[in-house]
Design brief:
Blueprint lengths: L1 H19 L43 H6 L54 E6 L15 E6 L3 E2 L4 E3 L4 E11 L3 E7 L6 E5 L6 E11 L4 E6 L6 H4 L6 E11 L3
Antiparallel strand pairs: 1-2, 1-10, 3-4, 4-9, 5-8, 5-10, 6-7, 6-9
InterPro entries: C1q_dom, Collagen/C1q_domain, Tumour_necrosis_fac-like_dom
Keywords: Complement pathway, Disulfide bond, Extracellular matrix, Glycoprotein, Hydroxylation, Immunity, Innate immunity, Repeat, Secreted, Signal
Subcellular location: Secreted, Extracellular space, Extracellular matrix
């Protein structure tokens, strides 16, 4: 049975080979055109072309639209035109932030002579004598320590206050000693001298005095010792003594 099956296969193959050979004159019928396909995607951009030749002006009138498309060479700068009218004022802007405080200015200088407003005038001093010797009689008391002296109207070396601002002043002194002490306030603003004494011989002697004076410019005030009932032993005493002399302006003359 297998032999017959193989023979049939060989016969079939031979018949196919014989039918594949065709006469050269035989031809098939052309097929019909197919349906158009879908449009393809855009291609990639092409390379940049070469620079064109400069445009040439044609003879005769040229269309203005063409002139606008033609780029000419830059001309010379023209003259400045007349300034136009001033524009309208704009709206006021909002206030800015406060600035930083400035640096302090330099100290002012004294005007020296002339009138001084009462709210600006000032003068005050406080000095101390710490020398243990008894102050010489009828001489200006001098001082070793300056506590206050604004603005340098008192000379501690000479013991004099020199009026710079005319006005009314108050002067006062205080002294502490183991012996009797006599002191007086002296000024060339008046002939009379205002003196004070303490002759208590039992304890420390504490002496105070004061006076209000009307002073003109350059008039002087000072403190001096004078003799009253002191003994030679008291005048030669070298135990601790202190004298404090103060003065200040109450109010300046405004006229």
């Amino acid at each position: 049975m297998r032999g017959y099956y193989g023979l049939a296969v060989l016969v079939g193959v031979a018949s196919l080979l014989m039918t594949s050979q065709c006469d050269p004159n035989c031809a098939g019928v052309d097929g019909s055109a197919g349906v158009a396909g879908a449009p393809g995607r855009d291609g990639l951009p092409g390379a940049k072309g070469e620079k064109g030749q400069p445009a040439k002006m044609a003879d005769g009138p040229v269309d203005p639209s063409v002139l606008l498309r033609l780029k000419g060479e830059m001309g010379n700068r023209g003259l400045q035109g007349v300034m136009g009218p001033k524009g309208f004022c704009g709206d006021l802007g909002t206030a800015g932030h406060p600035g930083q405080p400035g640096h302090p200015g330099p100290d002012g200088k004294s005007i020296g002579h002339g009138q001084h407003p009462s709210q600006q005038a000032r003068s005050a001093f406080s000095v101390m004598r710490t020398d243990n010797s008894y102050p010489p009689y009828d001489q200006r008391v001098t001082y070793q320590t300056t506590v206050v002296n604004k603005p340098e109207d008192f000379n501690a070396a000479t013991g004099e206050f020199i009026c710079r601002v005319p006005g009314v002043y108050y002067f006062t002194f205080h002294s502490v000693a183991k012996v009797s002490m006599c002191l007086r306030i002296v000024t060339d603003a008046m002939e009379r001298k205002v003196g004070f004494c303490d002759h208590n011989r039992n304890n420390d002697q504490v002496l105070s005095g004061g006076v209000v004076l009307q002073l003109a410019k350059d008039q002087k005030v000072w403190l001096e010792s004078f003799m009253d009932q002191q003994t030679s032993t008291e005048r030669n005493d070298i135990r601790e003594k202190k004298i404090i002399f103060n003065g200040f302006l109450l109010f300046a003359n405004t006229e």
